[in-house]
Amino acid sequence: MTQSPPTAFDIADMTWPPPPYRPPVPPVTAADGVRRFDGITYATTPGYRPRLLDVQVPAGEGPFPAVVWIHGGGWLDGDRRYPPPTVPAALLHGAVLAAGLALVSVDYRHSLEAPFPAQLHDVKAAIRYVRAFAGDLGIDPDRIGVWGESAGGHLAALAGLVGPADGTDGVALEGTQGVGSGETGVLAVVDWYGVSDLVALASHPMPPMPPMPSGVEFPDPYEALLGASAAERPDLARAASPVTYTEGSTPPPPFLLVHGTRDGLVPYSQSEALAGALEGAGGEVTLRPVDGADHIFLGSPDIASIVEESVAFLARHLGVGA
Fold first, then answer.
1. Using one digit for the tens of pLDDT, what is the confidence trace for 12-29?
2. How far is the C-alpha of 21 from the C-alpha of 241, rounded, in Å?
3. Which SS3 state, helix, strand or coil, does residue 178 take?
4. What is the distance between the alpha carbons of residues 148 and 162, in angstroms, rounded to a whole number?
5. 236 phi and psi angles, rounded to 5 deg
6. For residue 128, which of 22, 42, 103, 313 sits 20 to 30 Å off, Cα-Cα?
7. Which stretches make up the BD-FAE-like domain (predicted)?
8. Which of 35, 40, 33, 105 is nearest to 68 (CA)?
9. H-assigned helices in 85-138
10. 180-205, pLDDT tens digit by residue?
11. Residue range 49-70: average pLDDT?
12. Spatial separation of the C-alpha atoms in residues 64 and 56, rounded to whole Å
């Protein structure tokens, strides 16, 4: 059967190149009243997969403050839908929604798709998108925080600290992906065991990686992120380090840093360094050690309390109940 050609109306509706983002898809409302917007395209770039985000909005009258969740995975892997295996999605998502916060979970380009600052450009694009479509999503555009783990913690810290005027050695950090311009500032940051100083971390030996299929080598995550070693590109390593941006023209937003004291992948000292830099810049920062825990809080007997403290911190600084 031959397919009919597009009508004049269809052709008039078509655009080329394709739009850099799509408006929100219609929500699905669950029995508990939570509205879900799944798989929204917030940014596109020819040759790359579309960048997607999901939004969950609590039941009741909005607009609601929003938390942008940024997944980990060494910038090489990961998925907006899944927290680390030690943190059940139902626990994390449920705690955010129960606190009266909307949850925005974002994907971003992995490092072998595009090196830094592509990942930060995508996070910034997601924040711009949420603000641009806040009315459709039931979100308060003036009350947005960020929360990430591991690689996502690093990106959350950068999102909280980097502004339009920032850039190091010609590296533009705000980006023009998706909604190409607009405010990307946030009111609060939760950073779980993220990298803060890639230059200092260059001397920290990587722990043994899990076995890979024959002939496949696991990339060094820092070299993949930068497209080179930190020694070869110290300028880019500095540009990718949150500690570079703690002293700016405005005070940094409040930070909660949570980190296992026996983290073998990202040393606890990375959060100590960021906490010290934030305090030196006059910022409000809480550094919460998780005694004896490894990366992703392995070995911690009480993940629920870590989630609870993180959500309470965000709710307080985003003005829930104020």
1. 556 677 789 999 989 999
2. 28
3. coil
4. 16
5. -75, -35
6. 313
7. 53-278
8. 105
9. 89-98, 118-132, 134-137
10. 999 999 999 999 999 999 999 887 66
11. 96
12. 11
Q: Which two three-digit tokens encode residue 104? A: 């925005």
Asked if residue 258 lies in contact with residue 306, where contact means CB atoms within 8 angstroms, the answer is yes
DSSP string across 208-255: PPPP--TT--PPPHHHHHHTS-TTT-HHHHHHT-GGGGSS-SSPPPPE
Give Cα 231 distance to the centre of its chain: 26
What are the two backbone dihedrals, phi and then psi, of residue 204, each rounded to the nearest 5 degrees? -90, 120
Handedness of CA 321, 257, 232, 111 (dihedral sign): negative
- Tell which residue, 74, 55, 229, has the closest CA to residue 144: 55
Q: Which pair of tokens denotes residue 21?
A: 């983002």
What number of other Cβ atoms are within 10 A of residue 75's Cβ?
29
Q: Is the pTM of this model over 0.90?
A: yes
Judge whether 206 and 220 are in contact, CB under 8 Å: yes
